[in-house]
């Protein structure tokens, strides 16, 4: 398998590729020597900053973690909804061709065949997502033509994990590794 199989996708979320690298983390600016900018409300509590504590109780930290997970789930749901809408619209457009009496039998047959491909692809994507959810908190497949971006929810994603995802995706989706990219969201 070539290293291009898990080419990193761009964007503000973190990506991993099979070349062993990963995109810079959100904390990369802190390590560049750039001056830190303090939030005006950061020291509002007299308890904040004492003994290295953030001033956030453990219970509040759990609530914040749950909110972050909800936000990630919302992102995954939105990506899946967009993909499903696009597939549904393409299917409906093909339905119009099939129902149009001015179209030739060949055009109608080609439209029916394309509908079958759309249905099969959606089934393979659902199967892949189900398999990925067994290893990751959440997973979604974003499709752009014949390219697929696999997005998983994880604290980190190393190149070994990315390669495993690409192998699974190429098998499930019946595509070549260069048609698959892997990304993760915390």
Automatic annotation (TrEMBL):
Region feature Disordered, mapped onto this chain: 1-73
Composition-biased stretches (Low complexity): 1-23, 34-44
InterPro entries: SpoIIIAH (IPR024232), SpoIIIAH_sf (IPR038503)
Protein name: SpoIIIAH-like family protein
Species this chain originates from: Cohnella rhizosphaerae
């Amino acid at each position: 398998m070539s290293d291009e199989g898990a080419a990193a996708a761009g964007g503000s979320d973190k990506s991993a590729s099979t070349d062993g690298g990963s995109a810079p983390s959100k904390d990369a600016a802190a390590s560049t020597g750039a001056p830190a900018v303090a939030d005006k409300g950061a020291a509002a509590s007299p308890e904040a900053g004492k003994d290295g504590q953030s001033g956030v109780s453990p219970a509040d930290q759990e609530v914040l973690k749950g909110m972050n997970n909800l936000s990630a789930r919302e992102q995954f749901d939105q990506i899946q909804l967009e993909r499903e809408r696009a597939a549904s619209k393409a299917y409906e457009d093909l339905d119009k061709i099939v129902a149009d009496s001015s179209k030739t039998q060949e055009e109608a047959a080609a439209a029916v065949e394309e509908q079958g491909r759309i249905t099969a692809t959606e089934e393979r994507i659902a199967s892949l997502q189900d398999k990925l959810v067994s290893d990751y908190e959440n997973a979604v497949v974003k499709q752009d033509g014949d390219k697929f971006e696999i997005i998983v929810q994880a604290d980190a994603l190393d190149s070994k994990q990315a390669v495993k995802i690409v192998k699974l995706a190429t098998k499930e989706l019946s595509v070549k590794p260069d048609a698959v990219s892997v990304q993760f969201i915390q």
